[in-house]
């Protein structure tokens, strides 16, 4: 399996410059983030990806879109791999709005307000990561899956901090929680 932290969002761009929450809900990718997403196509094209699982946030959907298009894969929207609510960017968009913006994707598994209402305790993020590890480990061809997610979730899932637009192939020990 490959895990990928979404590319740079407008929130990331502004927060990095000011160290203040810019108050952007569910931000899109920045211009640099769109460039990063395009560059990922060349880097990931030969990785034998057959399934893409993506968080419902716009920045993750936009990160996955170019590669999904080139590979002819329809991403699977999975709220388990969402970010922990801690900043304005972690307030998502209603499922009905996402369905209008991304008509080829299935958002039927999301409640209208699918993100957490208040800061999610770290232990709950770790519980989601464990639940996802169990679910993904049971899927056939899990090693041919790309998961597009977020910093806090990936920290809980992989055990390391990842920068915007970076990816890592996980070996079976990490995938099955034996690392």
Could you walk me through the main structural features you see in this protein, from its secondary elements to its overall organization?
The chain has seven helices and five strands. With 179 residues, the protein is of the alpha/beta class. It has a single domain, classed as 3-Layer(aba) Sandwich (Rossmann fold), CATH 3.40.50. Strands 3-2-4-1-5 form a five-stranded mixed sheet. Helix 3 (58-71) links the parallel strand 2 (51-54) and strand 3 (76-77). The longest helix is centred in the last third of the chain and has 16 residues, at 122-137. It is globular. The two termini are 15 Å apart.
Summarize the structure.
The protein has helices spanning 10-18, 31-44, 58-71, 95-101, 122-137, 151-158, 172-175; strands at residues 2-5, 51-54, 76-77, 145-149, 167-169.
Rg, alpha carbons: 15 Å
The outline comes out as globular
The end-to-end distance, rounded to whole angstroms, is 15 Å
Give helix % range: 40-55%
Using DSSP, what is the number of strands? 5
Pfam families: His_Phos_1 (PF00300)
Organism: Acetobacter estunensis
GO molecular function: phosphatase activity
Protein name: Histidine phosphatase family protein
Could you list some keywords that capture this structure?
alpha/beta; 5 strands; 179 residues; Rossmann fold
